[in-house]
Design goal:
Layout: E1 2-7, E2 12-19, E3 27-35, H1 42-60, E4 64-68, H2 76-95, E5 100-103, H3 105-113, H4 120-130, H5 140-207
Parallel strand pairs: 1-4, 4-5
Antiparallel strand pairs: 1-2, 2-3
Helix pairs in contact: 1-2, 3-5, 4-5
Amino acid sequence: MRVLGVDPGLTRCGLGVVEGAPGRPPTLVAVGVIRTPTDLDVARRLVQIEAGIEQWIDEHAPDAVAVERVFAQHNVRTVMGTAQASGIAMVVAARRGLPVALHTPSEVKAAVTGSGRADKDQVTTMVTRILQLPERPTPADAADALALAICHVWRGGVTNRLQDAAKSQLEARAQAQSKVQLAKVQAALAQATEAREAQLRAVRGGRR
């Protein structure tokens, strides 16, 4: 599975692509940051982020996109920008028909460090170690994007298998219920046919 991780932000939108499978060490495909000038209006900055993510999807062909779930912060202006960039990432992925997963910061931290309370430095350190990188990815937005991708590779694969198993069980249950319903309908038809034939025989017998 190849996953594009997106750490949304207006000034810096972190992007990281990793490839791997649950239970196996993932490998780095690409990492970087989309930067937008602060003197541009928000709409133009979002257009630049959209174009950047489109280009990354074209170049690296991910199977899924993992985006950090936006959560409440004290700085409302910051969280608004983050939410807008997050929405752009989801729209771009959906337009390409790619599945999108949202992971909270604590989920990502727990996945890569074992603790949902790890700080950014600990996350960067573990991302460097997991991907066996020669140096720490910078800035932190890039490292966070890689952490998101790693989290989805490890957790998303398990989730998908559970969802597939649940889907298979539902389908099997639906098929079993359909068979039961069909048997009931067939039995009712047989009874109706038998009753009709009995009536016909009674009528014929009366005529004699």
